Amino acid sequence: MPRPSTPLLSGTRIREVALDIIDRDGLDGLSMRKLAAELGVRAASLYGHVATKDDLLHEIANEVLERVDVTGFASGDWRQGLVSAARSYRAALAAHPNIVPFLAYGPARRDSSLQRLDVVHGALVTAGWSRREATMIAAGLMYIVFGAALSTFSSGFSTDPSVYSGRYPHLDRAHLLPAVAAELDHDSFELTLAAYVRGL
After folding, report:
1. What region holds the HTH tetR-type domain (predicted)?
2. What is the pLDDT of residue 7?
3. Of 44, 126, 192, 194, which has the maximum CB count within 10 A?
4. What is the phi/psi pair of residue 89, to 5°?
5. Which among 110, 101, 36, 102 has a CA at the least distance from the CA of 66?
6. Taken in order 136, 95, 83, 72, is the CA torsion positive or negative?
């Protein structure tokens, strides 16, 4: 049988298909055996491109985090830098919510995370914050972003009005929240982000 003109495997293709599996089946749904099957190869073939599943997850995480935009700090306005970085971070996580728990463990040795954190930290220190304060501010921003990415407040309510009626007088319209969850979650994120930056 002749060799295919295009190789079946490449690092890029492996990461793309693995992320598709994570998006569809969750983190626990990704296995090297399943990934190999979807790529049409044997599992052993993958190990020429990636040593372990954990290494593969770090590579995927690195690519997801490359979408986080920290160019807003270049203007010298650290407030605008924080806001634009947080918005793009949330958007990157929202595109692939199933990998968020893996990303939430911190920057680890991921180059994309560390490069962006370096920009944030440097901009804050240049603006006059101490190194400790800059670390705390970056950590606080991550709490806001990951909190928004890991959960939806508005979707967590029942659409059955009888759950709230007569028992929780101040939640008499809570059954309407799931229908506008995306809008409310977005606005809640923006409110929290604005309050955080204003408070700083």
Report:
1. 8-68
2. 55
3. 192
4. -65, -45
5. 110
6. positive
Residue 164 in contact with residue 141, Cβ under 8 Å?
Answer: no
Whole-structure pTM value:
0.84
32 CB-near residues (< 8 Å, 6+ apart): 43, 46, 53
Q: Are residues 117 and 155 in the same domain?
A: yes
> Does residue 55 form part of some domain?
no
Same domain, 99 and 163: yes
Calpha distance 64→89 (Å, rounded): 9
Do 94 and 149 form a contact (C-beta atoms < 8 A)?
A: yes
Rounded mean pLDDT of the chain? 91
CATH of the domain at 81: 1.10.357.10
Query: What's the chain's length in residues?
Result: 200
69 contact partners, CB below 8 Å, separation of at least 6: 84, 85, 88
Per the structure block, which two tokens stand in for 172? 């008499």
CB 52 within 8 A of CB 90: no
Question: Which of 4-13, 108-117, 155-164 shows the highest mean pLDDT?
Answer: 155-164
**29 in Cβ contact with 22 (< 8 Å):** yes
**Confidence class for position 150, pLDDT limits 50, 70, 90:** confident
